[in-house]
Write the structure tokens for this entry.
Amino acid sequence: MSEESKTFDFQAEIQKVLDILINRLYKNREIFLRELISNAADALHRFRIVQLEQKENMLDPDVELAIHISFDEDENTITVTDTGVGMTYEETVQNLGTIAQSGTLEFLKELDDTSDVANLIGQFGVGFYSSFIVASNVTVRSRSFTADSKGIEWKSEGTGKFSVSYADKSSRGTEIILTLKEDAKEFLNKYKLETIIKKYSDFVGFPIRIGEEENPINRQTPIWHQAEDEVKDEEYNDFYRQVSMDFTEPFHRIRMNVDVPIQFKALLFLPSRRDRSMTSVQFQDYGLKLYSKKILIQEKAKDLLPEYLRFVFGVVDSEDLPLNVSREVIQVDRTIRRISKSITKKIIDELSNFADEYEEKFLEWYKQFSVFLKEGIANDQKRRQKLLELIRVKTSKSEDKPITLAKYVDGMPEDQEEILYLLGENLQSLKQSPHLEHYKKLDQEIILFDEPIDTFLMMHVTTFSEKAFKAIDQAEPEPPKESDDDTEETEEKEEEKDKDPFVVRVKEILGDRVIDVRFTDALTDSPCRLLGQGAAAYTRMMKYMTEDYIPMAKIMELNSSHPIIIGLKKLFETDPESLLLKKCSFQLLENQELAEGNLKDPNTMITRTTDFMKQLLEK
């Protein structure tokens, strides 16, 4: 074939996408129309921008911007036509056959057996390929907006190849002709098509017509330009489904109509469930839809919100927005920053008000979205204290119901000057931590941070309500206050304890695995504990970030009244070189390392405990 009429192979990734869509979306086939209308609307938006930038050499400049859908029962076809920007030969090859414009690679990365495929295809722009769910053959005819452009024709049966050739097409835009499969004839029905359009595409900003009808099927007035009391809850929810591709109801919605210092309208939604991909480092598919004078300028405007609010969906429309010549790029200037500042403040204020009024509902939402708020506390210094008011913390006294930091501070005894906390791997191990024993005696409450993000959080937080945070596993609790007469005697006793030959021997056995070994009065039920030196959050962060992380040595404190320590001391007095003393010393150390998630070599510990059981059973 000539250069102008050529057959191509789909990239392997696209063929995989086709197989996935055909096999996994059979029961939800109607979304093919949603995706084709979405692509058509995008082409129309693009032409609007072209009209602003270019006045000459335009093909059909006065033709209405619209989407037309027709079907032919005799030919068994459905045709979706738009009068948008159109495509050239090269653009057709790129857009409909290779990875460059389709987003297929990102789509496949996000996909697993539990993924909502119908949601993902909208997010990653592979919706065109959903045509093959219902069609045995797809033909695309297109002509670009320039007057000297040529028409093109793209054809494929979705079996691995496609062809592109020049073709006669007098009008600007694109038409997609689907030859339906035998089991897809249900879509050759006007009522069926209308139902799908109203369900998915009712707020598309261009008229959508079926057949010979003059009246559009869809409503076109942007919902955020209507008076708030004129819009029903169901209409808001329908719009939310379109902007989020999430078909559950939103948790909360926010309307904004701001006149000074910047004029803009906004309609924002907080989802009720978290998409797992949102917490991925690679996740970039976020941002609000940005309009200027009702013209879509940017599909995913990331500069309108701080990254930690990337779970928010919605639209912003401003009369004051400065543009440059590109649809995809806006000037990130003072206007955008002011809009962002206003929106961010509004979202945080709305969450605060909701939490005050509907605490239980907020807690349910918070369980899924706390990671984003904590990320914001770490990264947004200006709003840190306000965001800290939103978080909920588990404590040694609150059972499993989180409380606010303000409630924790209000419950502090008068002589407690610091907010006490403990970082760990999970809530159960934190509740059993020996570090809590001293504070239980004093009836003091400890905040229990049990998520990985909490480590990152506490690297950046130092105070709340003028109270400093203190990690209880990083410093020995202060002893009870004593009179001056008793001070010298107490110091002598502590010095004697530290010089105890048994303590010296245990330190000798453990070597550089510990910084020091000493007795403590802070323990009641546990035989020992490990105290770190320096910032607790920093050392834990090193564990998460360093592949070959080696736990830092800690101070080992022994409970002199615990039966195990009493027994080991007696063993030491009879046989200082006892092999059992050595094994038990390492076992005590590694028990604590295991509980803290820092045990580097579990195999050695397993071998040792197996020997213990063997010896016990032999006796």
Q: What stands out?
A: The chain has four domains: 5-210, 223-359, 391-471, 484-618. The two ends are 88 Å apart (CA to CA). The chain has a mean pLDDT of 86.
